[in-house]
Write a structure and sequence with these properties.
The protein has helices at about 170-180, 225-230, 255-270, 270-275, 295-300, 320-330, 345-350, 370-380, 385-395, 400-405, and strands at about 5-10, 45-50, 65, 85-90, 95, 105, 115, 150-155, 160-165, 195-200, 205-210, 240-245, 275-280, 305-310, 360, 365-370, 415, 420-425. The protein is an alpha/beta fold. It has a 6-stranded mixed sheet, with helices on both faces. A 5-stranded mixed sheet has the order 3-1-8-5-6, with no helix packed on it.
């Protein structure tokens, strides 16, 4: 079964905790601290696999977690880093944060591999916290917590041209004639349940990728039938060939058909509705009677900028002219794949999320504690200028500075955050 959507839970690995220990050797009765650092937790990485064309692997298994880093050991032993977990997806998969629907990554174009959740950094052992005034530190840094997220995976077909139109207007027949695709063809509504991709190769060496987007119906933009499942595949196309049954073999009016499908596109995404369209007036081989539906289509839509080509998917009449016109239009467009920009940045969004802290005064020292502080210290290298600037921004953005001032702190007073101690200055 074709699967173009899945919802899964992903979790990176926690960093290993730093270790608290002291040298205990013969003739060294009061050895210094020698606790080792924890190992890094595993990342969650998404990678494009050229051999995949569905999200079938994620329909039954829903949870994926990287392993945690090992804790540090005695004698400055560093805990082992955990292996990353790599999730393979087909090209064109868009990864979205499930609650907000914001894009985290689009596995398309040049983006073949992306770290979505970073593993926690290992905590520092107590060997790092020895100072002139604290020679036997009994504190080690905890490993940075893991990150976890529910994400939606959506496969959006990558094609230059999309075939749109009502069911049974001849899109599959057209596709099978002009490309190497072999779609199933039968006279049923919603015959095509999977987007069929094919490559059009023209004699002069030009070519383009074309997708038969499954037949739409009225109400598709509201999810009627399989509307949303299909409409998402149009989002990457640069141009659309709107196939219409010019002969009205099912008793529908071709002008009305085009209006209804375009209304669905407008309701789903107005930006898509503005993309170039070419009308393929199909089934000219079965047009009978005195009325000329082709001229009626031209009179109606060409003033609106839609070029109309009479074609027959059965006999091949008019198809070559249509393909050359489409190729010429594509040549004047941006050739890059439509890639969705990142809107959600897990590392920033999850860093401060729902983590409490406390500010208390003990003797003459202001003590700030809580998992939020531990997590920040796990992220930050305070020895670097960039890390210290981040630390200052963290104190301001989280309201810790305000709470310290509300508690009565003055310039020169001492602040302690676990193994970190510093004097407060504005």
């Amino acid at each position: 079964m074709f699967a173009d959507r899945a919802k899964i839970f992903i979790r990176s690995g926690k960093g290993g905790d730093g270790h608290v220990s002291f040298r205990r050797e013969l003739y060294v009765p009061n050895g210094g601290p020698d606790g080792g650092d924890g190992g890094r937790g595993g990342d969650v990485i998404f990678e494009v696999d050229e051999g995949l064309n569905t999200l079938q692997d994620y329909r039954h298994r829903k949870k994926f977690a990287a392993k945690d880093g090992e804790p540090g050991g005695k004698r400055r032993c560093h805990g082992a880093d955990a292996e990353d977990i790599i999730l393979k997806v087909p090209e064109g998969t868009v990864i979205k944060e499930a609650e907000s629907g914001k894009v985290i990554a689009d596995m398309s174009g040049d983006n073949r591999r992306q770290v979505i959740l970073k593993g926690g950094k290992g905590g520092l052992g107590n060997q790092h916290f020895a100072t002139a005034t604290m020679q036997i530190p009994k504190y080690a840094q905890p490993g940075q917590p893991s990150q976890e997220l529910w994400v939606n995976l959506e496969l959006k077909v990558i094609a230059d041209v999309g075939l749109i139109g009502f069911p049974n207007v001849g899109k599959s027949t057209f596709l099978s004639r002009v490309t190497n695709a072999q779609p199933k063809i039968a006279n049923y509504h919603f015959t095509t349940l999977n987007p069929n991709l094919g490559v059009v190769d023209l004699p002069d060496g030009r070519g383009f990728v074309i997708a038969d987007i499954p037949g739409l119906i009225e109400g598709a933009s509201e999810g009627v039938g399989l509307g949303h499942e299909f409409l998402r595949h149009i989002e990457r196309t640069k141009l659309m060939i709107h196939v219409v049954d010019a002969a009205g073999t099912e008793g529908r009016d071709p002008v009305d058909d085009i209006r209804k499908i375009n209304a669905e596109l407008e309701a789903y995404n107005p930006e898509i509705a503005k993309r170039p369209q070419v009308i393929a007036a199909n089934k000219t081989d079965v047009i009978y009677g005195e009325d000329d539906p082709i001229q009626r289509l031209r009179n109606t839509f060409e003033p609106e900028g839609y070029k109309v080509f009479p074609i027959s998917g059965v006999t091949g009449e008019g198809i070559q002219e249509l393909l050359y016109y489409v190729s010429d239009r594509l040549a004047g467009m941006d050739q890059k794949t439509v890639v969705f920009e990142q809107e959600y940045f897990p590392e920033d969004e999850l860093l401060y999320k729902d983590l409490p802290y406390t500010v208390e005064k003990e003797d003459d020292v202001y003590v700030v504690e809580g998992p939020k502080i531990e997590k920040m210290l796990g992220y930050t290298n305070l020895d670097s200028e960039k890390g210290f600037a981040f630390f200052q921004k963290f104190l301001k953005d989280t309201g810790i500075l305000e709470e310290l001032e509300a508690a009565g702190i003055q310039e020169g007073d001492t602040v302690r955050m676990y193994g970190l101690q510093f004097d407060y200055y504005k």
